[in-house]
């Protein structure tokens, strides 16, 4: 009896628990309804239901699949990113509402989240739950508080979004315009340069003595070209004066110039002129060896092997780059410049093919000046990486997501959007590792995937970021100082820099070049040379 009663009692207790749960749920629903009604009643402006639908619509357009998103290896990074974006909006609202303490809290948490992302990017592995859970939770608490403060009200966010959009529109129209003009100015081949090319070419074919001198010297130096105990540099360029500055400045600042070997590759048009220039100048280069080739001589560089050449034969690509009328000018002019498809630009992806006997190569762009001895570059340990380069993500915008189309599933699934970008212009390449890891094959894979230009639009940096992803070793930043062709660079940084890079449109050999940086470059130009004088270089 007793036992049974006990049982009944327990059952009754169970029933009581169930009814408790029902009670709680009911009261929760009532409270929610109450709050809903209250908030409706207190709202002065009607709360539009459009934003939410719009949001969903955008998702569909971008082809985002939430299931896929959650399965994607970068999804924690994405969550953190989304939180950061929302938090940034709330910071603005908090400041507008004079809630400075809360704005400060949000900003601090934003920095925490960014730190998490950049640490993950630096360690080159996706975020795990364990790494990200505390940060995501802390941020969620703040975002929840923001919602309590009604910072998430639809009208508030709409108003903010409109402000941001109009600011962005203003910015992009200004930058696009100025970029367009600078590009046109930059593309105009300076008359003097053209004159010099013609002058040198004529001289070359008339001057058999010069030809003989070069031939004799080439013969004597042939063994140096493949000697792996020397310092090998390559420059791929059609600009004689710029190339001359690279070679001259390296020679003058080298502690062991006799161990420096320059491998220049140019095109058919400039081949004779370039040979002529360096044959004349040979005696002033402190024993530096210079070899000149033209890419038209490379038999392996043909459309069946090289995707860029194959794509150039495609009429669609040709009209994209050369006619420029098929998208209402939406693509900025510089994206369409045939220069970005030029073979001299893409040769950097074939260095092991161009120099089959070499093991290590320092690649220099033609718009650099060398200020220090570079021999130490050849003994830097690249930790079995292929590319040694300086990173450029000190500013947050030089990360992968800036260069690549992250709406594309191939990009999304392979590359961390917050991975740090790096620069071409002064790179140490380990050609042994390059061959071993079939890096050219990786480059071909991505170049072929981009036949419709949906992964990236222009240039060699985006395919470079894809090709050398996880194969790049960060070098000390003073090895390669960037920005002298478009930005203000700290004078102390310039002073310490081993290689200065005039990347950007304001090249030092152009009228539009930045006057304050021109002397760094002009120092290495021989303006008294008769040909330079005849061609009005000054
Ligand atoms: C989303 O992706 C998952 C896994 O890739 C797939 O099973 C599902 O059908 C997709 N859903 C939609 C709506 O495309
Ligand atoms: C094109 O390049 C490939 C691979 O480098 C080579 O095998 C082939 O002979 C070349 N074709 C021509 C026509 O030269
Ligand atoms: C290198 O990669 C390409 C393209 O991915 C492939 O066709 C080729 O067989 C690879 N070569 C070697 C030696 O693995
Ligand atoms: C980015 O990739 C998506 C998906 O392939 C494509 O629809 C879109 O046009 C691409 N964007 C650009 C700017 O090419
Ligand atoms: C190389 O630079 C030196 C000094 O900076 C200069 O005197 C010389 O004329 C330059 N040589 C050439 C060929 O430009």
Automatic annotation (TrEMBL):
TM segment ranges: 21-39
GO-annotated molecular function: polygalacturonate 4-alpha-galacturonosyltransferase activity
Membrane-protein topology: Single-pass type II membrane protein
Predominant localisation class: Golgi
Keywords: Cell wall biogenesis/degradation, Glycosyltransferase, Golgi apparatus, Membrane, Transferase, Transmembrane, Transmembrane helix
Assigned GO CC terms: Golgi membrane
Protein's name according to its UniProt entry: Hexosyltransferase
Native species: Brassica campestris (Field mustard)
């Amino acid at each position: 009896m007793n036992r049974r009663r006990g049982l009944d009692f327990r059952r009754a207790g169970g029933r009581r628990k169930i009814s408790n749960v029902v009670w709680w749920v009911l009261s929760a629903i009532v409270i929610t309804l109450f709050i809903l009604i209250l908030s409706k009643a207190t709202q002065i402006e009607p709360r539009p239901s459009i934003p939410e639908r719009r949001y969903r619509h955008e998702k569909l357009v971008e082809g985002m699949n939430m299931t896929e998103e959650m399965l994607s290896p970068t999804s924690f990074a994405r969550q953190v990113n989304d939180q950061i974006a929302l938090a940034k909006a709330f910071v603005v609202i908090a400041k507008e509402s004079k809630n400075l303490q809360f704005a400060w809290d949000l900003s601090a948490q934003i920095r925490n989240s960014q730190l998490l992302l950049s640490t993950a990017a630096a360690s080159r592995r996706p975020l795990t739950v364990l790494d990200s859970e505390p940060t995501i939770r802390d941020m969620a608490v703040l975002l929840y508080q923001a919602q309590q403060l009604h910072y998430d009200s639809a009208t508030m966010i709409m108003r903010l979004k409109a402000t941001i959009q109009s600011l962005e529109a203003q910015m992009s129209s200004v930058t696009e315009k100025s970029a367009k003009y600078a590009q046109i100015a930059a593309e105009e081949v300076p008359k003097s340069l053209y004159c010099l090319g013609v002058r040198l070419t004529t001289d070359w074919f008339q001057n058999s003595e010069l030809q003989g001198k070069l031939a004799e010297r080439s013969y004597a130096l042939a063994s140096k070209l493949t000697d792996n105990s020397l310092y090998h540099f390559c420059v791929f360029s059609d600009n004689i004066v710029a190339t001359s500055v690279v070679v001259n400045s390296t020679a003058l600042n080298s502690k062991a110039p006799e161990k420096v070997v320059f491998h220049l590759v140019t095109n058919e048009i400039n081949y004779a002129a370039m040979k002529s220039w360096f044959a004349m100048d040979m005696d002033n280069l402190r024993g530096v060896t210079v070899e000149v080739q033209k890419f038209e001589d490379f038999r392996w560089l043909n459309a069946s092997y090289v995707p860029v050449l194959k794509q150039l034969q495609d009429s669609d690509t040709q009209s994209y780059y050369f006619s420029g009328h098929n998208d209402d000018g939406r693509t900025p002019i510089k994206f369409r410049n045939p220069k970005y498809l030029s073979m001299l630009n893409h040769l950097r992806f074939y260095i092991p093919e161009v120099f089959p006997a070499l093991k290590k190569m320092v690649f220099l762009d033609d718009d650099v000046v060398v200020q220090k001895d570079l021999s130490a570059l050849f003994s830097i340990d690249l930790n079995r990486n292929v590319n040694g380069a300086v990173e450029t993500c000190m500013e947050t915008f030089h990360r992968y997501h800036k260069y690549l189309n992250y709406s594309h599933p191939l990009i999304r699934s392979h590359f961390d959007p917050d991975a740090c970008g790096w620069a071409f212009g002064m790179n140490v390449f380990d050609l042994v590792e390059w061959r071993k890891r079939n890096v050219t094959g990786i480059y071909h894979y991505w170049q072929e995937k981009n036949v419709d230009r949906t992964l990236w639009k222009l240039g060699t940096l985006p395919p470079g970021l894809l090709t050398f992803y996880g194969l790049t070793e960060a070098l000390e930043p003073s090895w390669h100082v960037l920005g002298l062709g478009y930005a203000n660079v700290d004078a102390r940084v310039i002073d310490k820099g081993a290689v200065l890079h005039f990347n950007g449109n304001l090249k030092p050999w152009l009228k539009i070049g930045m006057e304050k940086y021109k002397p760094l470059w002009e120092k290495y130009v021989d303006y008294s040379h008769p040909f330079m004088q005849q061609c009005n270089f000054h």
